[in-house]
Amino acid sequence: EQLDEQTRLFLADKQKGVKILGEKIYVSKIFDWFSEDFSEEENAEGVLRFIARYQIEAGRFSRYKTLDYDWQLNKQ
After folding, report:
1. Contact 29, 66 (CB under 8 A)
2. pLDDT by residue (tens digit) across 28-41?
């Protein structure tokens, strides 16, 4: 339950989780870097299926672009 809630919160953050703009979806680079942790398929469709478990609208996409990753957090 706690992991699901944190996943929902992360994905809801349009700056670092998922952002849908019209017909494009942007997701965190983390999904590219660690796709095997989110889907056995290790491809965009598998990652988007994982995201759709938390954000149904993501299920209508078959490809995505990535959001810029904020490396500033790592410098703290």
Report:
1. yes
2. 999 999 999 999 98
Helices (H) and strands (E) in the chain, counts: 5, 3
Locate the domains of the chain by residue range: 2-69
Round to whole Å and give the CA distance between 41 and 10: 22
Instruction: Please report how many Cα atoms fall inside a 13 Å half-sphere around the Cα of residue 11, on the Cβ side.
Output: 19
Per-residue pLDDT of 8-23, as tens digits, reads 999 999 999 999 999 9
Query: Which residue is associated with the tokens 């299920």?
Result: 59
Token pair for 25: 């979806």
